[in-house]
Amino acid sequence: MKAAGFFAFAATVALALSIGSASAADLGASCCADLEERIADLEAITVRKGDRKMSLTVTGHVHRVVLWWDDGHSSGTYYGLDSTNFSSRFVFRGSAKVNPSVSMGFDITIEIEAGGTSSKLSQFDEDGKVGAQINGSNAGSFNSANVDSYFGDARRVAWWIEHKDLGRLTVGRWEFAGVYPTIDLTGHLFLAAGGSFVLLNGTFFIRGPTGQYYAMVWAQVGDPAAAGGRTELVRYDSPSWNGFIYSASIAEAGDYWGTMVRYAGEHGGFRIAGQVGYERITDIATPVTVDPTDVAFTGRRPNITARGFALSAMHIPTGLFVQGHYNAADYGGEIIGAASGYWGESTRHKKPVDHWLIQAGVSKNWFGSGNTSVYGEYGVANDVGADITNAAGTTVGRNFAIAGFTAVSGVTSTETKVWGMGIAQEIDAANTTLYIGYRHFDADIRCTDLGAAATCSGGVAVSAAAGTFTTHKLATEGADVIVAGLRVRF
User: Fold this and answer.
1) Are residues 114 and 260 in the same domain?
2) Which run of H or of E encompasses 39?
3) Do residues 455 and 407 touch, judged by C-beta distance below 8 A?
4) Residue 44 lies in domain
5) Parallel, antiparallel, or unpaired for β 153-163 and 102-111?
6) Measuring CA to CA, which residue among 185, 161, 164 is closest to residue 241?
7) How many domains does the chain have?
8) Is residue 142 in some structural domain?
9) Cα–Cα distance measured from residue 438 to residue 70, given in angstroms and rounded to the nearest whole number
């Protein structure tokens, strides 16, 4: 209404200027009717809060960082990035009461997904833009200033209907029910130390002791791709019962489903939150070229299962907290030597993987401006990026190759360790969080050969049914990342 009033005032001034020296006698009923018509037109194009029945709330945050990295042989600093840990976004939410028991609403969340985001950078590319996303071709990244990016990835687009006694049904693009990482009781630790290991440096290449760049990035030995995503689905969430909420979802063509139980409550001065979940994926990958006469064109159907739990606790009087998670995924390991079918893989057979993280610290309002959280963390990911040995002894491990990089062949085992620390400070008066965090990464990568020279150096000989294999350990350098930033919520 304030905006409408402003436009009405502006229209009145414009009208007064247009009539110039016309006499007062000319300002009759026709003039006033014309003015009212102009005001009505302006009101029709003015953004208002909903349609007077369905409410509309606009919210979101801007999150930008400075990131310093060191890969063991070189280092650098990238400025003004958007952090994939809580990417910048804006949210349109609406709701309306149908009756005292039933509500309906929607959520449209748009986030930044390109243009210098932290999960797309490397030692060679500070811009972090993907060529195909820019112009539909395999274009290189930008190397000049004042180049437009875009802001328009659909994180959520869904409607929901909820009965206070029966629960909520959500239809559209939304988080699926299933396996999730750590529940952050502080509300701001994940800005620097998300449950994922690879959102800050995942696309950086792993280095060797002589400075060589391996054809592997940290994301390929980091998290299993089975923790907390979004897709097009139908999801059900029950009402809260003594702090427990049950959820289930089914996605796409019914070949992606999950279920979980969550809990949140306070007992004896402790705030407790937990979650346990399970997922199953049997979605067949569709090739680039589809032949409708070939009934088997999609290849092997995968049978991927994931399971996990998370548990967090905080002592409210002191602010001391501990929180963590354990997730595991199996890509169909019951058939040795057969391809998993995961993302269309026709020759590889992925090993089961697991991933865990624990964080602890204290979160307290010591300075009066908002909570301050000091934390430390440690986590491990096992066998991400590794393959099972073929029972026939003809295929051993996974191969990584990129032109110009040092190839890594026969990867049958990986272990990635992460430890870090940091501090986050809330500034309640500005609805802002200021923070700095540090993470160190180490990778233990093992390769196996069949008598031929392997990329990995060193190692010991082991026996297998198909013959004698030699297992080697790849010599790698650790990596360090420091991220400092600020998130402004609106």
Assistant:
1) yes
2) helix 29-45
3) yes
4) 1-48
5) antiparallel
6) 164
7) 2
8) no
9) 12
